[in-house]
Specification:
Helix 3 packs across helix 4. About 4% of the residues have low confidence. This protein is 31% helix and 17% strand. It is built from seven helices and seven strands, in the order H-H-H-E-H-E-H-E-H-E-H-E-E-E. 40% of the residues are buried. Bound molecules: S-adenosylmethionine.
């Protein structure tokens, strides 16, 4: 039976800010930000999920869960959502905060290996907050190619960055790319990039 998720009014969670900052101090390149994403950015990410596409949804790098919350607030059943997070403290937090969501501790850059048998059917969307820009281009490309293979045809790989340019340049014969306007209600302002395999 699927559980419904009632979105609470977003509030500034000071303890989340502290958890995030301390994760960043321990490992800045892996955490990739000093503060959790704003509700505006999280909503813009979740908005890119196509509700007509069936199958599981994977979130990469949920951190303290702002994007997880926005995904569930779109009416997606928690049981459909699989989060993949490297940091065990964030995994424990997401598990506690979002009952029913499948939390996997592992490497989002090696998604097929990390998911193994967990995601047997093709995915409806991948929503990524991985700090892609801290990784070399060949790792970004490998991550995108691997992700697109796990998705249903036409399903999106959704990524935010703080950069003005795309994290992986467009290659129209291999994948289509679209970008949101700059989202100013986030610190720092960000953009949402959506990749889909070319048909
Ligand atoms: C920029 S933060 C975003 C956190 C959250 N989604 C948000 O928007 O506030 C990046 C997240 O990716 C996680 N992360 C970093 N490397 C990872 C990896 N290889 N696999 C899975 N998660 C990773 C970090 O621990 C952190 O939670």
């Amino acid at each position: 039976m699927s559980r419904s998720f009632v979105a609470k009014k977003p509030k500034l969670r000071l303890d989340d800010e502290v958890k995030f900052l301390s994760s960043w101090l321990q490992n800045p390149l892996k955490t990739g930000a000093v503060s959790p994403s704003s509700p505006a950015l999280a909503k813009a990410m979740a908005q890119q999920i196509d509700l007509a596409i069936p199958g599981p949804i994977v979130e990469l790098g949920p951190g303290t869960g702002p994007v997880t919350e926005a995904i569930l607030a779109r009416g997606i059943a928690p049981e459909r959502l699989i989060t993949v997070e490297f940091n065990p403290g964030f995994c424990a937090l997401v598990k506690k905060r979002f009952p029913g969501v499948h939390v996997v501790q592992g490497d989002g850059y090696a998604l097929a290996e990390t998911l193994g048998e967990i995601a047997r059917e093709p995915l409806a969307a991948i929503v990524s907050s991985l700090p892609l820009m801290t990784r070399p281009m060949h790792v970004r490309l490998r991550t995108l190619k691997g992700a697109l293979k796990l998705l249903r045809p036409g399903a999106p790989f959704i990524q935010f960055t703080y950069a003005m340019t795309a994290p992986i340049p467009p290659r129209p014969n291999r994948y289509a790319l679209s970008a949101s306007p700059r989202i100013w209600l986030n610190l720092p302002p960000a953009r949402v990039w959506v990749y889909r395999a070319a048909v």
